[in-house]
Design a protein that fits this description.
The structure holds two protein chains of two kinds.
Chain A (H helix, E strand, L loop, with lengths): L3 E2 L4 E5 L4 E3 L2 E2 L6 E8 L6 E7 L7 E2 L2 E6 L4 E6 L8 E9 L8 E3 L3 E6 L1
Parallel strand pairs in A: 2-12
Antiparallel strand pairs in A: 1-4, 3-9, 5-6, 5-10, 7-8, 8-9, 10-11, 10-12
Chain B lengths: L3 E4 L2 E4 L5 E7 L5 E7 L5 E7 L6 E2 L7 E3 L5 E6 L8 E8 L11 E2 L3 E5 L1
Parallel strand pairs in B: 2-11
Antiparallel strand pairs in B: 1-3, 3-8, 4-5, 4-9, 5-6, 7-8, 9-10, 9-11
Classes of the chains: A mainly beta, B mainly beta.
Chain lengths: 117, 116
Amino acid sequence: AQKITQTQPGMFVQEKEAVTLDCTYDTSDQSYGLFWYKQPSSGEMIFLIYQGSYDEQNATEGRYSLNFQKARKSANLVISASQLGDSAMYFCAMREGLQTGANNLFFGTGTRLTVIP
Amino acid sequence: NAGVTQTPKFRVLKTGQSMTLLCAQDMNHEYMYWYRQDPGMGLRLIHYSVGEGTTAKGEVPDGYNVSRLKKQNFLLGLESAAPSQTSVYFCASSLNPLAGGNHEQFFGPGTRLTVL
């Protein structure tokens, strides 16, 4: 079974509007972390936001917020006030076993976001 | 700080040739990783290292070897390249996750490898 599922291969959003990118995960661990990375056309991987499984508050970083619904095992990324520079691939990733020494990431297949002027 | 750097940026190999990809980080990170990214797929972990002199297998280790002789360097080797190893390879590094923080991985710019 896939550990991370991103069901939206592509999304479009109007500039200045908000957009939600979906991510569901599968783990039997109680202690895990969820990450979102952005990959622009230049190819580098840029860290956006992190949510730990024990964090009670949804994570926020500037225009990015993570809508964490633990019971549903979802960790959707919300981008507010979209900008043209937000056009990129977005990857959701998970790390299991936070209390061990492991830090391996499992990635989803990504969502390509296009911001329309 | 340069962060995570990778050498080379591009490479074309013929089937059966060997090569080594070099990753270097200047952030004093203990953990280092090698991933590959194929079209339509996310990144998949090849090998990783939790410290100098240690290595371990990830999701897709077959056909690759790694070495971590120095803390700042992590080498990925292909002994006999195959067309299935055509991919973009990313190196990453992070702090020891038990040290606290969000354990973010910092990525290099990638190496695009084509095996003919």
